[in-house]
Design a protein that fits this description.
heterodimer; A: 230 residues; alpha/beta; Rossmann fold; 30% strand; B: 458 residues; alpha+beta; 11 strands; elongated; binds adenosine-5'-diphosphate; binds magnesium ion
């Protein structure tokens, strides 16, 4: 059974009197354990697709089925539990909480899950070690470089052992060397744990890390390729 | 999310904007302090009135008098104080003790001094319950017969005829030492209408500590002996007219009333002068006192006066409390404003928390906890400030309002502001609730925030 299925997804936005079609009938099947990259130019609807796939936004038409549950029909209150227990998120702009230290940021999803402080600290430290930021664990986001912040956010996305990770241009703000570093980290982590990774990017080289590359133009999937160059 | 984590996170968020939080808390401090101080003034007023009244009589004691009997108003409809009446009163719910009393007045001797004393017979075992207490010696007990307890002013009834002046002609109140009487003998002389005379030797075993008018000037003895004295005095009596009873003879005063012609009244020797009724609290006192009057008894209690004073104080408190409440309302608006601003600044953070798994409930409580913390902090410091202000008021305000110091010997300094423990609890709960309520609107705004728009444009 595929972990995630998108069926004829249409998403329209009304801006004033105009109606913008961000997604125009997208069908996609994501298999368990797969690393899939969605490649397309800016504005083609990648972020919208990812948000809808993660149940953060509702499609105008079509269904999103996550492990047999049509999450696109659920209320926001219900989708929270899916995100908390089974999904991880990585963003282009890291989206760490500025008031919290690296370790506290990584442990945040566990707080919502009601896990005790002792266990949280242990697990967060372990994750930070994996991304090589143990000595930075007491630092606030503002005191870290972009690459370091993104590694913290990867640690945060992985700490609750999600079945699926959604990554929206995770290397968009990073230089080439850091990009390669982050991508190999991410690839290695999900492969080790048998997790599924759905990543959107406009960067060919980044997409090349994926098992499968989906090409998007103007809200439609136009082509599909096997990846695995790296 | 665990409550503990919620509080830690809320607290952390609160102190990110120190200046703003401090100012908001300050608003609550001022609001709480103004409510507490205002209410404390009202409480101080009632309490000082109560204290003042307690100097004239206990608030837990009702005095039921024998029906008033004077020409033209022969006892009216009032009930007589007989054993039957005592039993009726004892049966009223809330009456914890009752003792009938017989008063007999007469000439007495104390060493070389002479004077007039009023002897009151009570159930000796009930004295403690009836709120008698001694400063020296002891109260009466069941075995006492001619042992008596004297009020603290009784000594001032006596004067030395050889010194040729009456104590009441002195300037100022007489200042005899009450302890002079302790363990001494008083000789009381009673006469009856058969021209017989009897002398009773009474041994003073205790001096009352009470300063009230009712109790300071009387001598208390076991009622069993007083019954005999009364019977002796009534021998040969034919004319029971009011004048005779009250004033005919300075040597013999006995006050039971005359039978009304309308109904067959109990015999004189079956009636008591008055009765003391003990209750457990002011509320009972007031209720029972009223009920006794409804049942045509001549009942009176200090607590009867309290109602008017309390009503006035309530009005006073409502006005003061209202002023305080307005201050706190302003503080509440301040909290809401702070929280709305904070949510505006933290739009993106809220969105992130929602995306990584914070539920509506958790987001809501995160903000409610923050605003409640402001309430708690403001409330705690506000109470601290109130105690400070209250002590300043009591120190400087009291001497301003009462320049002479105490009003009566032995009275304590009056407190114009009082903060009882319940007021502390109330203020704390109130300020936390204000914080919580002020957080509802901002928290709902935070919940409704769409994480996606917030993240795209944040
Ligand atoms: N909330 C929104 N309201 C209006 N238009 C939107 C909204 N979100 C996205 N769009 C539009 O939908 C299209 C796709 O946007 P997006 O998914 O962000 O593209 P990408 O991530 O590929 O750059 C764009 O034209 C964008 O302006
Ligand atoms: Mg995008």
């Amino acid at each position: 059974m595929p972990i995630l299925e998108l069926k004829k997804i249409v998403k329209k936005y009304r801006v004033g009197k105009e109606i913008i079609t961000a997604l125009d009938g997208v069908d996609l099947v994501v298999e368990t354990g797969e690393f899939i990259a969605i490649l397309g130019t800016s504005g083609c609807g990648k972020t919208t697709l990812l948000n809808i796939a993660a149940g953060l936004e509702r499609p105008t038409r079509g269904d999103v089925i996550f492990r047999g549950v049509t999450i696109s029909k659920l209320k926001e209150k219900k989708t929270v539990m899916f995100r908390r227990k089974q999904m991880g998120f990585i963003f282009q702009s890291y989206n760490l909480l500025p008031a919290l230290t690296a370790q506290e940021n990584v442990a945040l999803p566990l707080i919502f899950d009601g896990i005790k402080p002792r266990e949280r600290t242990l697990r967060a430290a372990k994750m930070l070690k994996q991304v090589g930021l143990m000595e930075r664990r007491k630092h606030k986001p503002a005191e870290m470089s972009g690459g370091q912040q993104q590694r913290v956010s990867i640690a945060r996305a992985l700490i609750n052992n999600p079945r699926i990770i959604f990554a929206d241009e995770p290397t968009g703000n990073l230089d080439t060397r850091t990009t390669m570093d982050i991508m190999s980290h991410l690839q290695q982590a999900v492969k080790e744990n048998g997790q599924t990774l759905v990543m959107v990017t406009h960067d060919q080289e980044v997409a090349a890390f994926a098992d499968r590359i989906i090409y998007m133009v103007d809200g439609r999937i136009v082509q599909e390729k096997q990846g695995g160059i790296h | 999310m665990k409550n503990y984590d919620l509080l830690v996170l809320a607290n952390k968020n609160l102190w990110r904007r120190k200046g703003r939080t401090v100012l908001t808390v300050l608003g609550v401090i001022i609001g709480t302090a103004s409510i507490v101080v205002m209410l404390s003034l009202g409480i101080g007023l009632v309490e000082s009135q109560k204290k003042q009244m307690e100097q004239w009589g206990s608030l837990n004691i009702i005095r039921v008098h024998q029906a008033w009997d004077f020409p033209g108003h022969e006892g009216g409809q009032q009930k007589r104080l007989t054993d039957e009446a005592i039993a009726e009163i004892r049966a009223i719910k809330g009456v914890t003790a009752i003792s009938p009393a017989i008063e007999v007045g007469g000439e007495a001797r104390f060493g070389r001094k002479i004077g007039h004393i009023m002897l009151v017979g009570l159930e000796p075992g009930l004295m403690e319950q009836l709120e008698f207490s001694v400063s020296d010696g002891r109260l009466l007990n069941q075995d006492d017969r001619f042992n008596v307890v004297a009020g603290s002013q009784v000594i001032n009834n006596f004067w030395d005829p050889k010194q040729r002046h009456n104590p009441w002609e002195w300037e100022g109140p007489p200042q005899g030492d009450p302890l002079e009487l302790l363990d001494q003998r008083l000789s009381l002389t009673l006469h009856n209408n058969k021209q017989q005379k009897r002398i009773y030797n009474l041994n003073v075993v205790g001096i009352l500590s009470q300063k009230t008018m009712e109790r300071a000037w009387e001598v208390y003895a076991p009622i069993s002996e007083l019954r005999k004295m009364r019977d002796f005095i009534n021998q040969g009596r034919q004319d029971n007219s009011f004048q005779e009873k009250m004033y005919m003879d300075e040597k013999v005063i006995i006050s039971p009333g005359r039978p009304t012609p309308a109904r067959p009244a109990p015999k004189l020797e079956e009636q008591y002068s008055f009765a003391l009724v003990r209750t457990d609290d002011v509320g009972d006192t007031r209720r029972i006192s009223k009920e006794l009057r409804d049942r045509s008894y001549n009942a009176y209690s200090m607590a009867d006066n309290l109602e008017g004073i309390e009503e006035a104080a309530r009005r006073f408190q409502a006005i003061l409390g209202g002023i305080g409440a307005i201050t706190l309302l302003v503080a509440a608006i301040g909290i809401t404003n702070t929280m709305v601003m904070s949510i505006y600044e933290r739009t993106r953070e809220i969105a992130i928390m929602k995306v990584i798994g914070a539920s509506f409930r958790e987001i809501r409580w995160l903000f409610l906890a923050e605003s409640s913390l402001i309430g708690l902090l403001g409330g705690s410091f506000g109470i601290g400030l109130s105690f400070l202000l209250s002590s300043v008021l009591n120190r400087y305000g009291a001497s301003f309002m009462n320049p002479g110091g105490g009003m009566m010997p032995g009275s304590e300094a009056i407190q114009i502001s009082m903060i009882p423990p319940w007021l502390v609890g109330f203020a704390l709960l109130f300020s936390i609730s204000i914080g919580l309520l002020s957080g509802i609107y901002p928290a709902n705004r935070a919940i409704r925030l769409d994480p996606i728009t917030a993240m795209r444009h944040g």
